[in-house]
Amino acid sequence: MSAPNSTTPQLSIDDLSPYHYVPSELVCVIFVSLFAIATLAHTWAAIKYRLWWLIPTVTLAGFGEIVGWAGRLWSSVNVLSANAFLTHSIDLAFALADSRIFLTCDIVALVVQGAGGGIAASANTQAGSNLGGNIMLGGIIFQLIALICFVSLATEFFIRFIKDRPVRGQSSLSNDSFTTITNSRPWDHRLKLMSGAMVFITVVIFIRSIYRTAELADGWNGTIISTQIYFDLFDGAMIVLAMYTLLFFHPGRFLFSEPALEEMIKLESNTGSSTRQSLIKSL
């Protein structure tokens, strides 16, 4: 029997792993648990306050995080499983979404990211992985640009709201659709807390978007994507902070006063959603 060739390189499990490391099982369990708790709580709150738009946005995003981190947990047990990495790559591309225009932008960006993640995770060649990575990068950059536009417009809105300087001017707001602007709600303590929470959520999502952009721009073999702590902190932890901040400063409790909220729920159950819209205008 001949002696083994000492010059033949021996590949470690980290070299074979698509992550370039083995995901920590404990960290994955913690994140799956945190997202599961937050998702259930958001679903309950959406039902309680009749804020149904939170289900296809926040609740769905939370479910995507659960599945993505479950795939990562699967990888911690079997790091060479292609299906586990595919689950991780596609589902963790999804994050929180907001508003009609920006929700549409998010959907487009997330579909592109999901498609890129699927191509990269199932690729058998470096060229295929690079193609999927570039598609994901394009979706993330598009999402980051949309987020920057959202932040700019939101900043202008808050400045005009605080200074009571609407875009159309007070004299031109005779239509009923502008009732909430002409009779604006006072900048009370509850509204300040809610607004501060929204600012914080936007910041952490912005941090996460910058991280994902830098991660993919650095390449599949780059230092950023190969460092586990970066992903845990700048991806997982950022979305955890966003979901729990929105839960603690829930719009059902902070955006509406308690009497108005109770009346809104009661009237909606009796007469339908059209009454709710009229009541919201009067707040």
From TrEMBL:
<dbReference type="InterPro" id="IPR007568">
    <property type="entry name" value="RTA1"/>
</dbReference>
<feature type="transmembrane region" description="Helical">
    <location>
        <begin position="20"/>
        <end position="44"/>
    </location>
</feature>
<dbReference type="Pfam" id="PF04479">
    <property type="entry name" value="RTA1"/>
</dbReference>
<feature type="transmembrane region" description="Helical">
    <location>
        <begin position="193"/>
        <end position="211"/>
    </location>
</feature>
<feature type="transmembrane region" description="Helical">
    <location>
        <begin position="51"/>
        <end position="71"/>
    </location>
</feature>
<protein>
    <recommendedName>
        <fullName>RTA1-like protein</fullName>
    </recommendedName>
</protein>
<feature type="transmembrane region" description="Helical">
    <location>
        <begin position="135"/>
        <end position="159"/>
    </location>
</feature>
<keyword id="KW-0472">Membrane</keyword>
<feature type="transmembrane region" description="Helical">
    <location>
        <begin position="231"/>
        <end position="249"/>
    </location>
</feature>
<keyword id="KW-0812">Transmembrane</keyword>
<dbReference type="GO" id="GO:0000324">
    <property type="term" value="C:fungal-type vacuole"/>
</dbReference>
<keyword id="KW-1133">Transmembrane helix</keyword>
<dbReference type="GO" id="GO:0005886">
    <property type="term" value="C:plasma membrane"/>
</dbReference>
